């Protein structure tokens, strides 16, 4: 065979391999751009805004206090009743006395930088999601004066930054989780006016909590005298 033909054939196959590589890279780039465009990949993700929007979708808001919660904005930091830190992470939700009704959602436990969750004085109902125990920076959990039912999640004992825990005037049942006595920074706890049972723990951070914080729970006995009264007394 002609040697110039061989050389040019080899040249051609090298070129076509190169061409194929270029096409492959180009296709991959186009694919990434397209995926970003349709939002399959998180380009500038707004997961905290999505979480708060999901919470809003489950609520009745007759006073329109959540009107500014627009999920199409880059983040929720300009929404009313939401505060962010300098890194645009949500640190406060202030929705006390806002006539809101409906449930909390487990996804609220993903707001890692949240320090203040102020939801007192509404008509919020359902259970307190155990996932709130994931809020490691939470300083204040104010859910008092609502319609919450079910038991107090033991996972709230994981809230190592918590100083204020006010769950009073709801419809909470069951025992007071012992895990709460391990929150060393706890300054104020109020779980009065619920339907709690069992005894009042008096150890750990509960040592200096006044009895007033537990009153008006008709099935609650205490303060706990270690060993002499069953922890589950009154819990049928
Ligand atoms: C709770 O709901 C009831 C009945 O819908 C209403 O009368 C009451 O004003 C609401 N309370 C608050 C604090 O929004
Ligand atoms: C006691 O708690 C119940 C509900 O748990 C509430 O309706 C009532 O107002 C409370 N009473 C006082 C004196 O706080």
Describe this structure in words.
It comes from Ceratopteris richardii. The chain crosses the membrane at residues 20-41. Keywords: Leucine-rich repeat, Membrane, Repeat, Signal, Transmembrane, Transmembrane helix. This is Leucine-rich repeat-containing N-terminal plant-type domain-containing protein. By secondary structure, the protein is of the alpha/beta class. It has two domains: 1-43; 47-221, Leucine-rich repeat, LRR (right-handed beta-alpha superhelix), CATH 3.80.10.10. Helix content is 19%, strand content 19%. The strands form two sheets. Strands 1-2-4-6-8-10 form a six-stranded mixed beta sheet, with no helix packed on it. Strands 3-5-7-9-11-12 form a six-stranded parallel beta sheet, with no helix packed on it. Strand 1 and strand 2 form a beta hairpin. The protein is globular and about 55 Å long.
- Computed Rg: 28 Å
Molecules bound to protein: 2-acetamido-2-deoxy-beta-D-glucopyranose
| Oligomeric state of this protein | single chain
Shape: globular
Keywords:
alpha/beta; disordered N terminus; 2 domains; 12 strands; 6-stranded mixed β-sheet; binds 2-acetamido-2-deoxy-beta-D-glucopyranose; Leucine-rich repeat, LRR (right-handed beta-alpha superhelix); 236 residues
Reconstruct the topology from this structure:
Elements: H1 3-37, H2 47-57, E1 82-84, E2 90-94, E3 101-103, E4 116-118, E5 123-126, E6 140-142, E7 147-151, E8 164-166, E9 171-174, E10 188-190, E11 195-199, E12 219-221
Parallel strand pairs: 2-4, 3-5, 4-6, 5-7, 6-8, 7-9, 8-10, 9-11, 11-12
Antiparallel strand pairs: 1-2
Bound molecules: 2-acetamido-2-deoxy-beta-D-glucopyranose (NAG) (2 copies).
């Amino acid at each position: 065979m002609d040697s110039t033909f061989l050389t040019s054939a080899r040249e051609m196959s090298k070129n076509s391999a190169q061409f194929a590589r270029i096409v492959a890279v180009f296709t991959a780039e186009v694919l990434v751009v397209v995926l970003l465009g349709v939002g399959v990949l998180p380009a500038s993700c707004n997961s905290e805004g999505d979480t708060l929007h999901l919470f809003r979708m489950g609520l009745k808001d007759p006073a329109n206090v959540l009107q500014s919660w627009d999920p199409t904005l880059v983040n929720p930091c300009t929404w009313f009743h939401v505060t962010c830190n300098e890194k645009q992470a949500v640190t406060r939700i202030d929705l006390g006395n806002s006539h809101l009704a409906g449930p909390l959602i487990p996804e609220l436990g993903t707001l890692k930088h949240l320090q203040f969750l102020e939801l007192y004085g509404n008509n919020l109902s359902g259970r307190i999601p155990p996932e709130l125990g994931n809020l490691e920076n939470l300083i204040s959990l104010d859910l008092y004066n609502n319609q919450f039912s079910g038991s107090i999640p033991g996972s709230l004992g994981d809230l190592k930054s918590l100083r204020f825990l006010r769950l009073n005037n709801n419809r909470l049942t069951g025992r007071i989780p012992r895990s709460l006595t391990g929150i060393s920074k706890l300054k104020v706890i109020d779980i009065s006016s619920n339907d709690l049972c069992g005894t009042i723990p008096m150890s750990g951070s509960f040592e200096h909590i006044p009895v007033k914080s537990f009153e008006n729970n008709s099935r609650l006995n205490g303060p706990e005298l270690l060993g002499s009264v069953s922890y589950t007394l009154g819990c049928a």
